[in-house]
Amino acid sequence: MTKKLSGLYAITDQALGQGDKLYSQVEAAILGGARIIQYRDKSNDHTKRLAEAAQLLSLCQTHNIPLIINDDLALACQINADGVHLGRHDISLQQARNKLGASAIIGISCYNNLQHALEAESAGADYVAFGRFFNSATKPNAVKAEIELLQQAKKALHIPMVAIGGITPENGIQLVQAGADMLAVIQGIFAQKNIQTTCHQFAKLFEDPQR
Predict the structure, then answer these.
(1) What would the pLDDT profile of 93-136 be if each residue is shown by its tens digit?
(2) Does this model's pTM top 0.90?
(3) What are the sequence ranges of the domains in the chain?
(4) Alpha helices of the chain — where are they, by DSSP H?
(5) ∠ CA 116-117-120, rounded to 5°
(6) Which residues lie below 8 Å from residue 136, measured CB to CB, with a gap of 6+?
(7) Please, what CATH class does the domain formed by 7-204 belong to?
């Protein structure tokens, strides 16, 4: 991987936007400063998901932004996405690597478990994600992670870290200061009235060289 993964990581949600609206939302997020996009749609409508993912891949390629597919290796392979994000109950990292190849970006959800993150790094993950750090509308029952975990993981890991869960421009700065390389946001972006402005506020959190 030649491009360092850092900055605002925008994750879509089918409840917040579909079709043309989704495309416009993601475009606004990129223009506002999002540096990586994840297509997340848990519906069973494969035709819709394929069409949306393909459109977003084209958009992301125009802006030289990676598109990651949430939990769906087959879809990632079908559109030749930049990578896939895997959770606790998904296929193994090795299976994904075998299908997508050495250059693919593969991220692993590690919740509040540093050991899981260390194992993911050893297995070849390109980044790990911790959280939720704050109350999350998308996953209200998700396990809670403490900010100290990021500080510990920063010392132990050599791959980028993502923080997720209820993050806003106001509370996100403490996560960046604790070591998060990326902030993954769903509602905090796509449920906002002005997506581009909100993303710009997030992007500014990564501008401080002292963080």
Answers:
(1) 999 999 999 999 999 999 999 999 999 999 999 999 999 999 87
(2) yes
(3) 7-204
(4) 19-32, 46-62, 73-79, 93-100, 114-123, 147-156, 172-178, 187-190, 195-204
(5) 90
(6) 142, 164, 165, 166, 187
(7) alpha beta
